[in-house]
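Hi all, posting the design record for the shared folder.

TITLE: backbone redesign
STEP: 1 of 1
STRUCTURE INPUT:
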């Protein structure tokens, strides 16, 4: 059973909330997966990072770090995927499915969020940015070693457990780690024989509906850049610019045919 539970709950539309995001960004995909796992829908604005739209004055006023994602909920502005996700869960989802209510259970999840933010994400950044921004064509050997050592750590954390959370289903920790690890896996494929638990965990995550609706497409975009470099997709950009903000519901409603294009498992 997925994090959103077996019963289909009524979609909650939050018209007062806007998320600025780019699908290729793992931090943005972590927020999109959490939204979909909670069945929440808000306005979503696609930001073209290749055109440096995330550095525009409009966004820089909200986030001087010039990074994505950015969430605005009325007067509140948050600029870190982990802070956004814990806020959204605490504010809009009281089931305890993604983040336990008891302090001990919650701390275990938060510990993994800190690991994602402080250890995994910097490894992604170090390996991917030279390819995304400096015309580097491959993952440099020192970064391959760094990523392999993260896989070894994650493998050891999965001894005796199925998920990175404290329960028998995927929680917020799994979602945030999955956004990063599925992206690292594109650059340094996880060796099933060396990391059997980690590779099974990622497979289980890839079967979750929120992975399909919120992670698969952006991961496909990222893979394309890693494999072939930047392809300027003018037509696609034009569509996005003309469309303006869209809701999470619209993003989720992509067809079976589109799913096979993004190579959903
Ligand atoms: N700790 C932040 C990291 C945010 C971050 O670095 N986002 C990347 C995209 S994944 C970004 O916007 N980078 C700016 C750039 O590429 O210029 C989070 O989890 O939200």
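Okay, here is what came back for every position:
SEQUENCE:
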């Amino acid at each position: 059973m997925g994090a959103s539970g077996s019963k289909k709950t009524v979609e909650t539309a939050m018209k007062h909330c806007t998320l600025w995001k780019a699908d290729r960004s793992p931090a943005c995909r972590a927020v999109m997966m959490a939204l979909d796992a909670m069945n929440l829908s808000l306005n979503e604005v696609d930001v073209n990072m290749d055109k440096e739209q995330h550095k525009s004055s409009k966004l820089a006023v909200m986030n001087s770090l010039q990074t994505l994602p950015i969430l605005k909920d009325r007067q509140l502005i948050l600029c870190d995927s982990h802070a956004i996700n814990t806020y959204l869960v605490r504010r809009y989802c009281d089931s305890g499915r993604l983040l336990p209510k008891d302090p001990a259970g919650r701390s275990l999840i938060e510990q993994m969020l800190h690991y994602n933010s402080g250890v995994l994400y910097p490894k992604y950044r170090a390996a991917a940015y030279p390819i995304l921004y400096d015309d580097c064509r491959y993952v440099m050997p020192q970064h391959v070693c760094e990523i392999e050592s993260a896989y070894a750590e994650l493998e050891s954390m999965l001894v005796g457990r199925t998920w990175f959370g404290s329960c028998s289903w995927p929680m917020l920790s799994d979602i945030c780690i999955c956004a990063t690890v599925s992206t690292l896996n594109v650059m340094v494929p996880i060796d099933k024989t060396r990391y059997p638990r980690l590779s099974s965990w990622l497979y289980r995550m890839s079967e979750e509906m929120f992975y399909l609706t919120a992670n698969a497409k952006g991961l496909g975009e990222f893979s394309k850049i890693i494999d072939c470099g930047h392809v300027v997709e003018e037509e696609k950009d034009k569509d996005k610019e003309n469309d303006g903000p869209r809701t999470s519901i619209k993003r989720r409603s992509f067809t079976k045919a589109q799913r096979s294009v993004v190579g959903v498992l």
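COMMENT: Residues 103-133 form the longest helix (31 residues).
Let me know if anyone wants the other runs.
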